[in-house]
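Example 3.2
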Amino acid sequence: MVNIIRILLILELIFNLSFISLYSQVSYPNTIKPLKLEKAPNFDGILDDDCWSKSQRISNFTQRELNEGEKATERTEVSLVYTNAEIFIGVWCYQSPPLKFTAKYMKRDFNYWEDDNFEVLFDTFFDKRNGYIFVINPNGARADVQITDEGRGFNIDWNGIWDAEVIRSDTGWFAEIRIPFSTLKFSNEKIQKWGVNFERNIRYKNEAAFWQGWSRNYDFEHVSHAGILDSFENIVGREIAELKPYALGGIELSNSSNGANTKKIGKFGLDINSLILPTLKLNLSLNTDFAQVESDRLKINLTRFSIFYPEKRDFFLEGKNDIEFDLYDDAKLFYSRRIGLENGDAIPILAAGKIMGKIGNSNIGLISVQTDSKNEIPTTNYTVLRFKQDIFNQSNIGAILTSKIRSGYYNYVYGFNFNYRTSDFLGNNNLLVESAISQSQTKGNTGKRNLSYKLAVAYPNDLLHFQAAFFGIQKDFNPEMGYLERDNYKFYFTELMFRPRPAFLPFLKRLYFKPFEIALFRDDLTNQMQSTYLEFVPLGIVTKSEDVFEIVISRNAEAITNEFEIYPNVIIPVGEYWFTRYKASIETFKGRNFSLYSEYNWGDFFSGTRQNIYASIYWNINRHLNVSTDYSKNIINLKEGSFNTDEIGGRIEYSFNPKLITYFVSQWNTSTKEIIMNFRLHWIPIIGSDLYFVINQVFNTSSKTIDLRKTLFLTKFVWRLGF
């Protein structure tokens, strides 16, 4: 393996047309000392309290983009002060004329990679692996992310309790960020030393400046390259318990061939969050409800495999990286949508509990859920236990156990994994080696081929990106709390990407080429080919204005052993099919007020041809109003039949302010022939408490008229109480 990497490094030296930093990614000072206060400063975004003039202020930011290693073009200053209960971050983002702020969003969890922003990362355990990221933009919009395993775990769905106030002037934009210590997990030491890093992004310049660790081989999420926060003393802001009672009321109106029906909805429940240890949190949920969750974007399936839909329910999203155990994107040992959803039907959850946190160098995640009985489905218990132990500088070993138990039936899966990671391989390069093995046990299944396994290596760096993997899912492996796109196979995968930055082309940020991507699926028992994907990217272009153009050529094969219905009355017969396909795409920079993505994909498809046209448009009318729409069309001509498919969706977001946001989402496709419309109003009266008003409607379009089939009105109020 070392020889392979050495060959790649030689290629890197041969083809490198731009300067790659080989020096240390440390800028001094690399330590910031927070100022202890008896009384909190005025929280108004105006940084005129005495504490801000007395505290240490750092300003040594270095560019990662566009010009790696050069000093930031605009001055950014940061200072930290704290009380026993809260930390306050003062931010000065100076900007010289013209004041071209890119700030399209005001909503919570905005797309911060499209806006001017300021980001702060805290490594609260100082373990150089895990942390929290808090992001603000010039509108005062907030986003937060929970980081595990040096960014391999990236949970943007985590929502902490914190706030920010922002003001603008003719010299830039300035902010105060307030984070209660109760939002974070950390040790119980009297003196706390944390890792910390800061990033500022100026979109019209496409400039990204880091305080520390600005190599293009490292992302901001690479916690190990953060600076040092030294130190906090006697912080005692951790709450013992948090109660979040909710009340929900609404009405559902439905029309069918049997007539009109009206159903009243009323529900109460309670979430309890408590600290078992300073670093270990218990969450209990009684009469769990997810009424405010946005509907899935339904997809037309033109394959013989199931479609993966992401989790959207808050209870399962918080801390999800502490539970995940993935062999690959389409092979997961734990998939939380298996809980409370069965055959597309929602199953009531009676109670749910989870424990998440860290003890020493050990990460622990436990979820247990009891669902109610419904129709023919009996009450069921779902439990998953995940354990990870930190070893070496950035590596870990771990184990998982999943358990699904109902009357007279059980399904268990247990597995082990080892992940080695370093960002200092032969200099400042990243190297990853991952391995895993797992086994399932199911009542009534006596098959002996019930293993899954994985071995993968990756060299993910700025100029060269290489990876290779081998894993298998044996015929009898059955993870009923997981997700498998397919079963009974061995998978071989490798790819190489080369991404030079030619300095002699002033308008280009980078080119990229993919000489090969090879993915081969073989039957686990017979070793016969199931699928083959070969991909070649002869040219990819990224301009300095962040516009992207790409050409892709692929050669695919599918061995169909059982005929399947790809579309109503169109059957793909048994046989081996080889087809060549081409794709051209263009994407304009999303930081603009108007942006688009367009793709044309054409070529062979089973016994005939397929053309696919996809386009999405985004329009930022002002910082309050954003509109987007997308459309996809397939034109398919096969020996077995010809058909077209259409999918269309739209989204309107209006933010009155960062704490009062409305959403309107709609979708339709030729498969379901239904228009699904969702309206949601989300008000945050106090950080941590939420009011939702939801209207969901379903229209049937299968006849010449558009018939309203269902309307749902819901109001849900969640109030947070801390003790």
